């Protein structure tokens, strides 16, 4: 029943029963002690942690090493169960007062909202039988939503706020080689981190002065040991159960399709674009070379997970329109036995 086993178990009005919630996207990486997705792309190592991208420069050897590290996570059995929930104080049509989405790694597998009052499977999980009792999960999410919105009103009271305010919340746990390797639980209010749970202490950590009131209230209600037990125990049990039905979706290797195009901008500057599309998992390396030398570039982009469950990414290189190269785009991905190299042909 989703978080019901861990969340429901007899905690009077506690954090878990009324509900703490959900999180999004990525492959578990326990080496750093926090959830992260590593991707090498366009001559940059991109570290996405809790949805926030941070870029660090790296040379060609760094790109290859990081790609091996990122791709190897799946081979060594790293998985995450994450949940993202959100409440708003003044809902309107199309924006429910409460909604929640569950993710396995970066794949959303169910969604619930307070308008439909239904938890429904997403993507390939629509065809999976026996993984979850969706009726029971719907009932549980409804109860969670009611408690969640009550908490939002309490927080608004601490700030003496009125009007429309939002409260997203993220929680989840991670497995590596079938063993627990970390968990997280963070609540945000109006775009700023508000409070988080530290499993090591264990304790709720206020991230805003007003959150001290929430910490005292929750810990007085006895939520610390219950939250720790859920994150380190029942969440992991749920993840192991889900993996019995989901490994084929999470472990698949879809190779990228690669194309190179060019166009001349005003000022006689030619832009070369290398596009990799329809690949999975997400970590990928794209870079340009001129002859045998790697060309560093700051211009790149990437798309979110598409409806067909794959990604796309691209890297741009700007050169004088008179420059005939030679230039080539190189693509490395865990699905490929060998890197793909696509030369730019000035005649096209």
TrEMBL record:
Keywords: Glycoprotein
Lineage top rank: taxon: Eukaryota
InterPro entries: Ig-like_dom, Ig-like_dom_sf, Ig-like_fold, Ig/MHC_CS, Ig_C1-set, MHC_class-I_related, MHC_I-like_Ag-recog, MHC_I-like_Ag-recog_sf
SUPFAM superfamilies in UniProt: Immunoglobulin (SSF48726), MHC antigen-recognition domain (SSF54452)
Any one cellular-component term (Gene Ontology): external side of plasma membrane
Family: Belongs to the MHC class I family.
Cross-referenced PANTHER family: MHC CLASS I-RELATED, ZINC-ALPHA-2-GLYCOPROTEIN
Protein name: Ig-like domain-containing protein
Source organism phylogeny: Eukaryota, Metazoa, Chordata, Craniata, Vertebrata
């Amino acid at each position: 029943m989703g978080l019901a086993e861990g969340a429901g178990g007899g905690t009077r009005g506690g954090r878990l029963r009324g509900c703490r919630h959900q999180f999004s996207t990525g492959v578990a990486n326990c080496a750093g002690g926090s959830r992260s997705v590593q991707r090498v792309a366009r001559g940059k190592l991109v570290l996405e942690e809790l949805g926030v991208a941070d870029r660090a420069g790296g040379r060609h050897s760094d790109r290859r090493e990081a790609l091996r590290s990122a791709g190897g996570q799946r081979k060594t059995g790293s998985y995450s169960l994450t949940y993202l929930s959100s409440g708003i104080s003044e809902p309107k049509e199309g924006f429910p007062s409460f909604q929640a989405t569950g993710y396995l790694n970066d794949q959303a597998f169910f969604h619930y909202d307070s308008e439909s009052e239904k938890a429904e499977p997403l993507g390939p999980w629509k065809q999976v039988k026996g993984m979850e009792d969706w009726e029971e999960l719907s009932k549980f999410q409804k109860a969670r939503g009611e408690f969640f919105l009550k908490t939002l009103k309490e927080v608004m009271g601490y700030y003496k706020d009125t009007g429309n305010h939002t409260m997203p919340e993220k929680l989840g746990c991670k497995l590596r080689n079938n063993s627990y390797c970390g968990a997280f639980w963070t609540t945000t209010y109006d775009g700023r981190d508000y409070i988080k749970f530290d499993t090591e202490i264990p304790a709720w950590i206020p991230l805003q002065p007003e959150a001290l009131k929430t910490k005292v209230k929750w810990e007085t209600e006895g939520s610390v040991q219950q939250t720790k037990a859920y994150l380190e125990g029942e969440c992991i049990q749920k993840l192991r159960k889900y993996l019995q039905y989901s490994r084929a979706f999470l472990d698949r290797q879809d190779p990228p399709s690669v194309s190179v195009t060019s166009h001349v901008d005003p000022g006689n500057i030619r832009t070369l674009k290398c596009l990799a599309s329809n690949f999975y998992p997400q970590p990928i390396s794209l870079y340009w070379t001129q002859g045998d030398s790697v060309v560093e570039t700051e211009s790149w982009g990437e798309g979110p997970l598409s409806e067909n469950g794959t990604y796309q990414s691209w890297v741009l290189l700007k050169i004088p329109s008179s420059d005939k190269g030679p230039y080539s785009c190189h693509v490395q991905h865990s699905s490929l036995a060998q890197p793909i190299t696509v030369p730019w042909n000035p005649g096209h």
